[in-house]
Amino acid sequence: MTFADVEKSLPNGLHDAELVGLRVDYTEEKAILLLNVDVANHDEDSNLEPNYRGLRLMFLGIQFVVVDPPGGESGAYPGLPVIDAGSGQPETLPIDLPRIRDGYFLCWIFVERWNSFIRISAQSAAFEWTGNPDK
Predict the structure, then answer these.
(1) CA-to-CA dists, residue 105 to 15, 25, 42, 49, 86, angstroms
(2) I need a labelling partner for 98 at 20 to 30 A (CA). Which of 56, 62, 90, 105 fits?
(3) What's this model's pTM, rounded to 2 decimal places?
(4) Contacts of residue 108, Cβ cutoff 8 Å, sequence gap at least 6
(5) CA distance 89 to 108
(6) Where are the domains of the chain?
């Protein structure tokens, strides 16, 4: 499964998900993001409140993980950092990266509070739910 496949599998992708944690293990070649993902069906009712559910997003066979230094004031916002995500290089702030190996993908996670990106290159991605929906 690619990162794009994971995003398509989720009701709202990773848009406005909350970042709970990030763990990178180069020995096992994996990165894990712990997230709270909105599972409310906003297509049917755009006025619905977010309905968060815990999710473990795993990147397997990682080539690299690049975390930009924070550019925002992290103490200015209460609660967990909110993210957005996409495939490839972010159009707003591409950077020089190593050549992406054949059979790998590149994706980005924008952390609003930090005003910066996490970029991940990996062979595959998978996810598992870690909690029940709030509502």
Answers:
(1) 19, 18, 29, 33, 11
(2) 56
(3) 0.88
(4) 85, 86, 87, 88, 89, 90, 117, 118, 119, 120
(5) 7
(6) 3-40+50-129
